[in-house]
Amino acid sequence: MLRCSTFVPNMAPASDKTPGFCRDCLAEQKGDVRRCHACGSPRLVRHKELYDLTLAHIDCDAFYAAVEKRDNPELADKPVIIGGGKRGVVSTACYIARIHGVRSAMPMFKALEACPQAIVIRPDMEKYVQVGRQVRALMQELTPLVQPLSIDEAFLELEGTERLHHDPPARTLAKFARRIEKEIGITVSVGLSYCKFLAKVASDLQKPRGFSVIGQEEAVEFLAPRPVTTIWGVGKAFAATLEADGIRTIGQLQEMQENDLMRRYGSIGQRLSRLSRGIDDREVHLNDAAKSVSAETTFFDDISRHDDLVPILRNLSEKVSWRLKKNGIAGQTVVLKMKTADFKSRTRNRRLEDSTQLADKIFRTGLDLLEKETDGTKFRLIGIGVTDLGDAGRADPPDLIDQQSGRRAAAEAAMDKLRDKFGKGTVETGYTFGGKGNR
Ligand SMILES: [Mg+2]
Prior knowledge:
By secondary structure, the chain is of the alpha+beta class. 36% of the residues lie in helices and 21% in strands.
């Protein structure tokens, strides 16, 4: 088993009172020791907030490759790449192949240039899905609040599980990691924190077989020197935009005003401002609780005029957006639903380039779809919603072409703030104001 240098993100020096335990034998540790007093293992975890934190991100290590190695012990010490096939890229590289410079999404010919001795295996998705399900089933024994992000990673909220497991979340998670190794034969990395953003950052710090903790107290200081790409949703393109503005580190974002960031980058400005300070209110939720979020209304009298439908559509879009924002999710396909006076259903949908939670985006897409339907037909119902739901982390990147959309997104965020403060009916946009509403 490979072992990374043990980088422990807690910056406060461990005192005798800092809680900790051994991840191998689970013995509690006291004092600033390097090895477990009971079993001698160096795999200790110590942190001031260790037994207060409840939100975890669990990620399987080099998942596909780990499954293949498990099923063929001869591969254990060899560099293994999963990939090839139609796309000809690396989907997963084991840690030995990574040492040679192989990365996911790399074209296969480049990967083999870097590591000619690598063994390439075609992905066996059916098998990985099955193992992924086993891992998830064990996660669900820890807490019902498991939110999968993909086949091999999930957020878990363990608040209130102490009575069930007779252990604080940190120890429950360490036991879980041991159990996965023993029963499934692969390894996981655990990130423990107080919010989703930092739990995910933490799980990546010590891979493979990692267990990292980021507490509330150290969050700002921990984030400051890190690159902006650490922030969820900041990809290469947006990082380049920030770089052009002279912003490279999260610390620089911490020094900027939220308003300023929103004026420059639209809705993502708000996310930058908050996440840079370790503020992330998104809760762990069940993905399959909802496959779509929508709102609809049936009219008292049938409506055929386009202009009469517009304010209603706006109103419904705002309802949908509000629910998405409240749950920290976003949708990538906008669905417009209509029922004609003679009870015929019409459903129109459009897949967006990026997922969204913005009322404005949902409304404008719906309006576009509505345009072709208002041909004099009388309607008795209209509804709008989004499907292809996912976490809001990558939703609504700044639109570099349509500068207006950034401004509208900033305006929407400002309105959301007012609504949070003074209640939902406080702010009316031009479309709903004076509109006929739900007649
Ligand atoms: Mg993984």
